[in-house]
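Entry 14. Structure prediction run on the chain below.
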Amino acid sequence: MTSIPGKEKLHLSLRPGLYLVLTEPRDGYERVCEWAVKAGLPCVQLRYKGQDECEHLSLAHKLRRITAGTDTLFIVNDRPDIALMSGADGLHLGQNDLPAAEARRLIGPELLLGLSTHNLDQVARANDAPVNYIGFGPLYTTNSKTKSDPVVGPEAILAAQAISRHPIVAIGGLNLERILCLGTYAHNIAVIRAVCDAPKPLIAMQKMHAEYMALLHNRIK
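Output returned:
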């Protein structure tokens, strides 16, 4: 299969910091993705909720072109076929999507594979899954999904970190204030509305990414 030229996919890893999920951003997928690259974010995930398969694939190709050759990885939500056809760096799965082992067989060993978890039992089961990282949440109430999973609360991130063998991406209702109160138990902080609904999305993502990286740096010191 021929993919769009981009970064070498061998030994890909998810850098710590802000993990941006794009779902119908007000300023458009391409513009917000360009801002994410400019801000130096570790990755952008395309979470397309429309029904138009051609539009979905077209969007994936566009975001792949924007991120190709940069330090910002491109991840596709739910769809291994779209991830492969667009030459994405990774695939993210929910609990009701393909089993991680089956998805890994489809996408091969080189692409990143993430898995959403919503309670500690799912975190523990994910330890044996062939994934590179897990999402954990929602930590707070969120309106980014029509049917959200039960809120686990920010205090649960410590328990998840204690039992997980994989890096954790915290998600669910996070904004700058909540990120600063969360601590450094997560490898990444996933945001959607806190960036996409901000008056100035580029400034919002730059600030959140910088503030969380400062927290991580201070923990290491």
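The first strand starts at residue 17 and ends at 22.
Filed with the rest of this week's runs.
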